[in-house]
Amino acid sequence: MPSLTGVPSLAGRIAGALTVLGLLMAAPAGAQTVVDGSDASLDPSLVATIQALVTRGFAVPGAAEFRKLHLSKARNGHGYCGEVAVAAGADFVPFHAILEEAGPSSLLLLSDYAKPGEAGDRETAVRLLTNFGCLE
Fold first, then answer.
1. Helices marked H in 32-72 — which ranges?
2. Band of residue 92 on the pLDDT scale cut at 50, 70, 90
3. pTM confidence score
4. How far apart are alpha carbons 60 and 32 in whole angstroms?
5. What percent of the chain has pLDDT over 70?
6. Across residues 125-130, what is the average pLDDT?
7. Paired strand residues for 80
8. How far apart are CA 81 and CA 62, in angstroms?
9. How far apart are CA 102 and CA 118, in angstroms?
10. Count of C-beta atoms within a 10 Å radius of residue 131
11. What mean pLDDT do residues 35-47 have?
């Protein structure tokens, strides 16, 4: 709101800054794409939640691409499989996301187990992703 001098008040400047910040934070999730249309049968807000969880540690979350999104075989009915690439042209990596309404969500991203010396952990991750129906 302008003051009598025509300069926006502090409250007005803060409100404007918060609006811009909110738009900037929302932009990356909106820019993420599902390249194969596998999200068509899923609620858009659910897809956005999955994307936010999967890309939370990415340097540029908005550049991520998704494919093969589907409900997993997790018994609780809150698990979702898919594949994610950090950017167009990058390799796709399988993941399993569990979205809990009343608790913490969890993510199993196969690329997290690609480090040298983690062969045993990688085998376990592959087995879990297979059992959840994320790998064939």
1. 44-54
2. very high
3. 0.74
4. 10
5. 75
6. 95
7. 71, 97
8. 19
9. 32
10. 13
11. 96
